Structure formats: structure tokens, C-alpha cells
Amino acid sequence: MQKIIIDCGPGIDDALAIFLALASCEDIEVLGLTCVKGNVPVEKTYLNAQRICAAAGRLDIPVLRGIPRPILAQADLMATVHGKDGLGDIGLSVPGHFPETGTTAVDFILEQVEKHPGDVVLCAIGPMTNVAVALLFDPLLGQKLHSVAFMGGAAYCAGNMNDHAEFNFMVDPHAAEIVLQSGARLVMFGLDVTHQTRIEDSLLSGLRQNGNACSDLAARMLSAYALGDRHLHDPCVIAWLIDPTLFSGVQSEVRVVTEAGPDFGRSLARPDPQGNCRVITGVDQDRLVSLLLSRLAELP
Ligand code: RIB
What we know:
The chain contains twelve helices and nine strands. By secondary structure, the chain is of the alpha/beta class. Alpha-D-ribofuranose binds at residues 9, 11, 13-14, 38-39, 79, 125-126, 151, 160, 166-168, 233-234.
């Protein structure tokens, strides 16, 4: 049983990743969701994480508000592909009451790692601002974590913000660089692998055929998302935890450009058996879709 914290900025593909994790109780214990300014402002990502947990019948999951802006970069870079509310504007209900935790995202990460030394997998599927600040608070955190599995960057392929930069890295490249230099065991799900995934009509129809509310919500959100981006970015991180054989990769040395200019947010990578990061470069798309369909059918 893997203990994970999902650091997220929901976000439609974040929502699918969270649904997948909550549907996989035999593999994953979700300790909490820490929210960051990502696809939409943190007030919305915090609320959206609560909406997703409520839809899955999991008001027991701690949801923590995180840092509202990147460490140094401009704070107004948003992703429009997720709609105004960040979840495709499909009218997903807002829970009337959600338990307050009384702590912050960074404090929650630090507390949980102290409580579960060596066991916590930090799944970062948005800009890594919370993760980086937690690493700055505790310079030994990288060794205390089991690992950091993150969606971000474009190691050996083009970006999605320009020729080079990927969105999560470009929103907060300074945070990404802090994580890359942390000494933690790192697994990178960049566009190298996520751009090999596709939101096909067969996935959408399969979700609708599941016949349960969460699968229908996922189909509606993904239908909206696919109008602007047909890739399953964030769910790859959770799918890897459930079945690592779905993926392949190469050990690499990865850094990110933090200087202003045309390469701002660009990943710099080279294969290196002693490198700081395993870059995931391959995925079995058919088995990934089968996993999503079978697991989401388990939700309410
Ligand atoms: O570049 C893809 C990433 O940007 C995903 O995490 C998606 O949610 C958006 O935030």
C-alpha cells in the first residue's frame, strides 16, 4: 500500500488523476490533496479538489490550501483549456460543508513525512511551488520522502507553451529546479510520455458505459478538455503507481532554465545512468485506458 500526497491544481486531468487514486484503495492510500495555483488560481483549485473528493464520496480526504503564486515567476499564467471554473464548467456541485484541516499545504507535507518517514510518495501534478517550499523548509525532506513523481517538463521533446517549455515547469521553473536539485528519488512524467496518450472517443464512450456518476462526470470533463488538449497528462503519474509496467523510461540528468528569455522554463536533459531523475518516455496507451475505465467504474 503506497501512501501518497497529491499536490495538484485541478484542472480536469488533475481530476481524473484524483479519481483514479481514490478508486484504487487496494494500491494507494491518499493521505491528502495539497492545492497549488495551477490551471486556475489556488482559491479555485482548493475548491475544485473538494468538489472532486465530494463527488467520489470522500469528504474524509484532507484538502489543503497551498501557495497562491509561483516563487519568482509571473503569477498570471493560467491554462484556459480547463474552463473558467477549472473543471470544464460542467456545473459539478460544490459541497455544502468540507472539513477544515487548520493547516497549510506545506505544513501538511512536512507533518505527513515526519509521520511516515520513507513512505510518502509526493505526486506533483501541477506547478511544484508547494513541493519546493517544503524542500526549502526541510533540506533533508528529499531523503525522508519515498519519492517525488511529477507531471512536468519536456525532456526530449517539444513543449506545449512554446517550442521548448511545458506548462507546469513554465509556471514555476524555480520550484522545478529546487525539486530537481533536492536529491529526492524523482520520476518525471513530461510531455515525452503524456503526449503519447490520447483522449479517444472510445475512452469517453467507455466512461459513459460504466454507468456510474463519477465516470459520467469524467466523460463530461474530458469532453470539454479534449477541445483544447487531447492528452492524459496527470493520470499517468497515478497509473504508474498502480502498474509501473505500463511505462518505460531512461535515467537522465534534468535541469530547467530559470533565466528570463526564450528558453525560460525549458527542460535541459541528457541520458545519464547516475542522473537525478528517471524520465518516463513510453506508455502502453491501450492498457492505460483499460486501467482508467476499470478503476473509475469502482467509484460512486
Ligand atoms: O502541461 C500539462 C500540465 O499542464 C497538466 O498538469 C495540466 O493539468 C496542465 O496543468
